[in-house]
User: Fold these one by one.
Assistant:
Number 1:
Amino acid sequence: MKGCLLFFIIMLAAGSIRAQTIVTDRPDQTESSSTVPRRSMQIESGVLLRFTGDNLFSVKQLLIPTTLLRFGLTKSIELRVFNQFERINNQINDKETKGFSDLEIGAKINLLSRADINTEIAIISHVVLPTGAAGLTLNSVGARNTLSVSHQLSKNTAIGYNFGYNHSGAGKGELTYTLAVGTGITEKLSVFFEPYGSLNAFYHKVNINAGLTYLLKDNFQLDFSLGTGVNHPMNFASAGFSWLMHNKPDNKN
């Protein structure tokens, strides 16, 4: 797994950035600071396979599908709905849990988009509703909140980073952070590398993630990514697509 991530880092150093008409929140952990166009719908969906623990006591998690729906309400506001079907095999207690997770409903608001300073800022907030199956639900209302910032550093380099706070309805919550660096190998093929982590009262988890996207059409993108834990046993692989369904452009805010 770490060898595959090194390969992606080498690719990252060799490329040059390319413009795309579709901007997605997958496959990296960093939420983009861009909103979808007004009155347009974007579907971002995929499959993720994650392993945690060691060879003796492992947990296998399959998410199929994991789906985010994004709808452009105005030029700077999008509405968001997220849900996924999970199947978890726990080798520790030899138990399988499956069903839909808690439903998340929220919005992304673009606060700043300045081409002259190559910076974009947005806030993203979701309410987590306890609608999930037994063993997959928080059993209470939770929240996920994120500040998203991106910079076009040069013609060849762009970065995005998030700072977040998640609360499950009990306890003190969890701080999160991400930093994604992306570049284009060709006009259609792009790669990224990303460290990210979470911090709560008990532990600080550090991870790395890398992957690629391929633009089939201006509004349809395929993706693939790999990730691993730095200070804890975790590996994952993910593949998916994003599809922007345009509406007629207008000049309204």
Number 2:
Amino acid sequence: MANDKNCDEESSWENNPFNPRNTDPKKMRAFLIIIILSLIGYAIIGVFFMPKGYAVLSEDCKVLTFYYDMNIESRDGKVYLIQSNSFFAPKPTEPKWLNDNCVDSVTTVVFDESFYSCRLQSTSRWFYNLRHLSEVRHIDNLRTGVYTLNNTSEMFYGCVNLKTITADHTWRLLFDYVEDDHNMFYGCILLAGGNGTRYDAKKTGKEYARIDGGAANPGYFTIPSH
């Protein structure tokens, strides 16, 4: 009886569509259908039951805030979805808020605490030519690291009134993984770090994307006072 049971188990495995040695066309089709349905299920879960990265432009067009949560429906203002790293769409897209004329009035950018969980590949041109932008708060909630942010090119290009970018002591930009940082701070003529480092037209890339340590370790970021 034991041998019969073992034979039955072996026969059952031989007929299982997940068995790589099974080449029966019908069972292979069943296997593919299972895979396809699983992927569809994953997509549905992603759409309805997983956090989303998005930006919200306030109704007065003054503040642009970045979130990563499931509260998108409750936010007041104009909402712009952000393409973060995912199985179905791994490549970054252009920032949608730049196509809105209202965004020219933005004076403040805020990275909400929730946004740290958003995995991004690119922030290229995110604030391109926002001429009235004067302050960026808590950029430390912008996640960087291996397999995440690798393109910061022209991120603050032309932000001629940008004065302050705040980050707490946890901020770290892993320079080795940023492949494209050209003109990240180009034209930010009023930008200054917390220890007095002023904008330098020769230093417009990732090397100054750090908390200002004065002459010994200059940077354009400031630790917030509160």
